[in-house]
């Protein structure tokens, strides 16, 4: 049985998602920050059949705008979960394809074509392995505030795969955190967390403007962001597909921890 989840399902939802906390970080972060009240973020659960109608939660589907995440046990009703996603009026442009109980969620889709699949290395950082990088001379590194919104919007406006809208830059300023590197008050590099829970933070948006590359600024902002997370008892995790980025993360002490798979979709 599949139904919309609400606050009464929180404990069981956390229990299921905690089976694979790193892969479910976005869902745990959405639950932590937004709960069940946001119209752009919804949760559905698949419950095992039981005579009393109170079967165990065995799968969860989460929508954040037009992005979707699914996770469940092998016996989950994957086809019906896909049907819920495909019938939603918001549509779907991307799905995180790390479903746990099956190798891939994509074969269950009927109304969407898969345009592109990325497989990126998932990495995690332990406090004991952290090797901080220094801030290069002439630069300052600090946590961003709302006063930096214009500068951050400009930074990410033409950032290739890292490009973000103003709203997408504003959200982590309020919901998670952004660290920036500046030269004479101009923002030239940044790193942020896309999702956070009480024990983990998903690092992303690591970007340096072309004119400042090669100065060590990506390492510097990542160092500051990771130190901030570790200082609060949160483990930094991330995924990457750029070899230069992977080299930066390994220098800081990150270790490989799996494969992160995402798929971009187009309606049939």
Topology:
Layout: E1 2-4, H1 10-17, H2 25-34, E2 41-47, E3 57-64, E4 67-72, H3 78-87, E5 94-96, E6 112-124, E7 140-143, H4 149-156, H5 166-175, E8 178-183, E9 186-196, E10 200-208, H6 217-231, E11 235-240, H7 243-252, E12 255-267
Parallel strand pairs: 4-5, 10-11
Antiparallel strand pairs: 1-2, 2-3, 3-4, 5-12, 6-11, 6-12, 7-8, 8-9, 9-10
Helix pairs in contact: 4-5, 6-7
Characterise the protein shown here.
- With 268 residues, this protein is α+β, with helices and mostly antiparallel strands.
- It is built from 7 helices and 12 strands.
- It has helices at residues 10-17, 25-34, 78-87, 149-156, 166-175, 217-231, 243-252, and strands at 2-4, 41-47, 57-64, 67-72, 94-96, 112-124, 140-143, 178-183, 186-196, 200-208, 235-240, 255-267.
- The protein has a 12-stranded mixed beta sheet, sandwiched between helices.
- The protein is elongated, with a radius of gyration of 19 Å.
- The relative contact order is 0.17.
Could you name the key traits of this structure?
about 270 residues, alpha+beta, 12-stranded mixed sheet, about 25% helix, elongated
Give the overall shape. elongated
Helix content: 25-40%
* Main sheet summary: 12 strands, mixed
Helix-and-strand structural type: alpha+beta
Termini Cα gap:
27 Å
């Amino acid at each position: 049985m599949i139904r919309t989840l609400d606050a009464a399902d929180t404990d069981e939802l956390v229990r299921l998602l905690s089976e694979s906390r790193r892969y479910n970080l976005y869902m745990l972060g959405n639950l932590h920050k937004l709960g069940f009240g946001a119209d752009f973020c919804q949760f559905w659960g698949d419950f095992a059949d039981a005579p009393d109608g109170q079967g165990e939660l065995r799968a969860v589907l989460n929508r954040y705008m037009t992005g979707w995440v699914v996770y469940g046990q092998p016996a989950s009703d994957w086809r019906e979960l896909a049907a819920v996603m495909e019938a939603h009026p918001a549509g779907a442009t991307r799905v995180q394809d790390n479903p746990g109980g099956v190798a891939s969620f994509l074969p269950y889709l009927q109304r969407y074509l898969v345009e592109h699949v990325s497989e990126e290395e998932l990495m995690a950082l332990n406090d004991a392995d952290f090797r901080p990088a220094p801030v290069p001379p002439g630069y300052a590194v600090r946590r961003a505030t709302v006063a930096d919104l214009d500068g951050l919007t400009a930074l990410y406006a033409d950032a290739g795969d890292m490009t973000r809208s103003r709203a997408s830059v504003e959200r982590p300023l309020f919901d998670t955190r952004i660290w920036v590197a500046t030269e004479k008050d101009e923002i030239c590099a940044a790193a942020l967390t896309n999702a956070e829970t009480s024990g983990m933070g998903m690092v992303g948006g690591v970007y340096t403007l072309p004119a400042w590359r090669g100065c060590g600024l990506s390492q510097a902002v990542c160092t500051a962001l990771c130190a901030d997370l570790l200082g609060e008892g949160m483990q930094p995790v991330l995924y990457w597909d750029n070899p230069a980025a992977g080299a930066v993360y390994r220098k800081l002490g990150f270790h490989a921890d799996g494969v992160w798979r995402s798929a971009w979709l187009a309606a049939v």
